[in-house]
Amino acid sequence: MNQKSSLIQTLNFVPQVLTLDNAEISKVEGVSNDRIQKLIELAFLAPDVIRDVCEGSQPLGLTTEWLLRHAFPTVWHDQREMFRPL
Protein backbone atom coordinates (compact mmCIF):
# COMPACT_ATOMS: atom_id res chain seq x y z
CA MET A 1 0.00 0.00 0.00
CA ASN A 2 1.42 3.41 -0.93
CA GLN A 3 1.61 6.51 1.29
CA LYS A 4 -1.42 8.19 -0.22
CA SER A 5 -3.71 5.17 0.07
CA SER A 6 -2.54 4.50 3.65
CA LEU A 7 -3.36 8.06 4.63
CA ILE A 8 -6.74 7.96 2.89
CA GLN A 9 -7.53 4.67 4.65
CA THR A 10 -6.62 6.30 7.95
CA LEU A 11 -8.83 9.31 7.33
CA ASN A 12 -11.70 6.95 6.55
CA PHE A 13 -11.52 5.74 10.17
CA VAL A 14 -12.56 9.14 11.52
CA PRO A 15 -16.35 8.65 11.12
CA GLN A 16 -16.09 5.20 12.73
CA VAL A 17 -14.18 6.64 15.68
CA LEU A 18 -17.13 8.87 16.44
CA THR A 19 -19.51 5.91 16.80
CA LEU A 20 -17.39 2.83 17.61
CA ASP A 21 -14.67 2.08 20.12
CA ASN A 22 -11.24 0.77 19.10
CA ALA A 23 -12.16 -2.84 19.84
CA GLU A 24 -15.17 -2.66 17.54
CA ILE A 25 -13.18 -0.98 14.77
CA SER A 26 -10.34 -3.50 15.09
CA LYS A 27 -12.82 -6.36 14.80
CA VAL A 28 -14.44 -4.86 11.69
CA GLU A 29 -11.06 -4.08 10.09
CA GLY A 30 -9.36 -7.29 11.19
CA VAL A 31 -6.39 -5.59 12.85
CA SER A 32 -5.19 -5.08 16.43
CA ASN A 33 -6.41 -2.36 18.79
CA ASP A 34 -2.87 -0.93 18.84
CA ARG A 35 -2.86 -0.65 15.05
CA ILE A 36 -6.22 1.17 15.12
CA GLN A 37 -4.93 3.63 17.75
CA LYS A 38 -1.83 4.41 15.68
CA LEU A 39 -3.91 4.86 12.53
CA ILE A 40 -6.29 7.20 14.33
CA GLU A 41 -3.33 9.32 15.42
CA LEU A 42 -2.45 9.82 11.74
CA ALA A 43 -5.76 11.61 11.27
CA PHE A 44 -4.39 14.43 13.44
CA LEU A 45 -1.46 15.29 11.21
CA ALA A 46 -1.18 18.91 10.11
CA PRO A 47 -3.29 19.57 6.99
CA ASP A 48 -0.24 20.59 4.96
CA VAL A 49 1.55 17.37 5.96
CA ILE A 50 -1.46 15.37 4.75
CA ARG A 51 -1.49 17.40 1.52
CA ASP A 52 2.23 16.79 0.98
CA VAL A 53 1.76 13.03 1.47
CA CYS A 54 -1.15 13.00 -0.99
CA GLU A 55 0.96 14.91 -3.53
CA GLY A 56 4.04 12.78 -2.86
CA SER A 57 6.11 15.79 -1.82
CA GLN A 58 6.68 14.87 1.85
CA PRO A 59 10.24 14.37 3.13
CA LEU A 60 11.55 11.00 1.88
CA GLY A 61 11.86 9.61 5.39
CA LEU A 62 8.28 10.49 6.31
CA THR A 63 6.60 7.19 5.59
CA THR A 64 3.55 5.51 7.02
CA GLU A 65 5.79 2.99 8.73
CA TRP A 66 7.88 5.78 10.29
CA LEU A 67 4.72 7.47 11.57
CA LEU A 68 3.37 4.21 12.98
CA ARG A 69 6.66 3.44 14.79
CA HIS A 70 7.35 6.88 16.25
CA ALA A 71 5.45 9.20 18.54
CA PHE A 72 4.92 12.63 17.04
CA PRO A 73 3.58 15.84 18.55
CA THR A 74 -0.03 16.90 18.22
CA VAL A 75 0.94 20.54 17.70
CA TRP A 76 1.17 21.11 13.96
CA HIS A 77 4.15 23.47 14.11
CA ASP A 78 6.07 20.90 16.16
CA GLN A 79 5.16 18.18 13.65
CA ARG A 80 6.60 20.25 10.79
CA GLU A 81 9.81 20.82 12.76
CA MET A 82 10.10 17.10 13.54
CA PHE A 83 9.40 15.92 9.99
CA ARG A 84 11.51 18.50 8.10
CA PRO A 85 14.88 16.70 8.50
CA LEU A 86 13.48 13.29 7.54
Task: Briefly summarize what is shown.
The protein has 86 residues and is mainly alpha-helical. It is built from six helices and no strands.
Question: Which short descriptors sum up this protein?
Answer:
single chain; 86 residues; mainly alpha; 6 helices; 67% helix; 0% strand; elongated
> Residue share in helices?
55-70%
Number of domains: 1
Q: DSSP helix count?
A: 6
Beta strand count: 0
Largest sheet composition: none
Helices and strands, in N-to-C order? HHHHHH
- Termini separation comes to 20 Å
**Global geometry:** elongated
Strand content: under 5%
Computed over alpha carbons, the radius of gyration is 13 Å
Low-confidence stretches: none
Q: Helix- and strand-based class?
A: mainly alpha
Mean pLDDT: 85
Describe this structure in words.
The protein is about 65% helix and about 0% strand. The chain is mainly α. It has one domain (about 5-85). α1 packs across α4 and α2 (about 20-30) crosses α3 (about 35-40). The longest helix is centred in the first third of the chain and has 17 residues, at about 5-20.
Write the layout of secondary structure elements.
Elements: H1 3-19, H2 22-29, H3 33-42, H4 47-55, H5 64-69, H6 76-83
Helix pairs in contact: 1-4, 2-3
